[in-house]
């Protein structure tokens, strides 16, 4: 296809730009992020998100979904680049890169744009440091039919390659918002919303707790958990049984166990 | 302390040996694995597992738990090495290594050694490829008071640094077994045991399903799920609601959601 540009050199400026998107600082400056793999890019396309720039490996297998993606990108005025697998490896940082990657503009993550009535359930991550946990929480949000994920305070970058990968496409379908706690709490209190913390202090059992929509489930930092004053500001503190030596679950696991319990309470028809 | 050996060179054979343990092939040949961080090593010690070799960074903060660990290792005839942070970084592959790491002999993972009556609940992972998922599943096993994790077919290495790290110490407290499916199924059928698959086919809702102890919850490969004939061989197929675009959860998440549901059925007193 004549519209494809072929790039074979590692020092090409476009290759340098693409590689730079693996770095948080550059993503922020450019307002762009990278997603890789035909499945993820197809999820994006079906959710109405097209990459501005599509990079494909030469010698990849033909696939009708890839052809459709390419056509849509070109029709929307985007750019399509062909390159070698070695260069794609450098771009994605993977030994066996999937045959395609795309560059997307970052989404608006302002709290103001979030419609709390859009879903009965929301996940909230506070100072979450592991991008894989953020991606997995987005994926769980999709599975429980949540509205999205709200990131409080200093979280890992949800637009990192690791987070986007772990989200399995949910980065394109779930709402994502970022806020400081002292911005989030007034926003929450300005409308209906139940704030629920996973907690070990003065908590009720998570099973059968009085969840109410719209329900915001807050999971704290992987090592420190949620600050005590945040917990105290919550409407409900629930505890998950811990029967072993450890006193905590993986953060994404805790979020999912709570989310499925809340789902059963808020949408009993989902359990049929 | 006179019993500490100081190593300052990257080319020292002990450093080379330690670095080699980051590689699956070398771990297998040596029958040894690496665990890092004072918290993990203290968990090991409290579970009666001491490293044969303890490596500490020079200039680390003193800590009574580290002193206790060192004393126990020496008393048990183990070796203690001091080295620079730069070398510890090379050994653990981390930019900011925790100030201590230890070498442990791999545990016996034969199915024959497993006492199914020891716990009401077991997790089973089939062809799980992500070591982080294996570690997280071990951590969940600990949390629900499961007996341990059984790895079927070609799984990632549970003794990899990533799996050990994600287990948060559960690698030292949970039983771990490895088997092929055609070895596992006869073993299971030779005694009491309910085999439960997370499934989309002919399944009942996971909530309120008739779980029975000892209950073995099987989670399949991250991409392909469980093979159909494995599913058919299970006593119970349960389905977790999927309300979004995707048709699956992260494997460790699915395991935890099922494990907590089964726990509530099998040990209702745990929910108090």
From TrEMBL, chains A, B:
GO MF entries: methyltransferase activity
Sequence ranges assigned to domain RNA 2-O ribose methyltransferase substrate binding in this UniProt record: 34-110
SMART domains recorded: SpoU_sub_bind (SM00967)
Taxonomic superkingdom: Bacteria
Annotated family: Belongs to the class IV-like SAM-binding methyltransferase superfamily. RNA methyltransferase TrmH family.
CDD domains assigned to the protein according to its UniProt record, in alphabetical order: SpoU-like_rRNA-MTase (cd18095)
Name recorded for this polypeptide: TrmH family RNA methyltransferase
Keyword line: Methyltransferase, Transferase
GO BP terms in the entry: methylation
């Amino acid at each position: 296809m004549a519209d494809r540009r072929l790039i074979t050199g590692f020092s090409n400026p476009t290759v340098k730009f693409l590689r730079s998107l693996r770095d948080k600082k550059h993503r922020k400056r450019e307002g762009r992020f990278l997603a890789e793999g035909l499945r993820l890019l197809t999820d994006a396309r079906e959710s109405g998100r097209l990459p501005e720039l599509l990079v494909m490996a030469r010698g990849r297998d033909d696939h009708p979904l890839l052809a459709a993606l390419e056509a849509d990108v070109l029709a929307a005025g985007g750019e399509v680049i062909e390159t070698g697998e070695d260069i794609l490896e450098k771009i994605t940082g993977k030994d066996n890169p999937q045959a395609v990657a795309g560059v997307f503009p970052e989404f608006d993550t302002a709290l103001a744009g979030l419609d709390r009535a859009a879903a009965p359930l929301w996940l909230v991550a506070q100072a979450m440091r592991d991008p894989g946990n953020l991606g997995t929480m987005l994926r769980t949000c999709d599975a429980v039919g949540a509205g999205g994920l709200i990131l409080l305070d200093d979280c890992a970058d949800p637009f990192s390659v690791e987070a986007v990968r772990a989200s399995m496409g949910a980065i394109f379908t779930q709402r994502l918002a970022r806020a400081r706690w002292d911005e989030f709490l007034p926003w929450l209190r300005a409308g209906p919303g139940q704030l629920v913390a996973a907690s070990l202090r003065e908590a009720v059992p998570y099973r059968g707790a009085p969840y109410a929509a719209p329900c915001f489930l807050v999971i704290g930092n992987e090592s420190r958990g949620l600050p005590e004053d945040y917990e105290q500001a919550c409407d409900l503190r629930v505890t998950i049984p811990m029967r072993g030596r450890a006193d905590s679950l993986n953060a994404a696991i805790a979020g999912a166990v709570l989310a499925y319990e809340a789902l059963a309470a808020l949408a009993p028809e989902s359990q049929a």
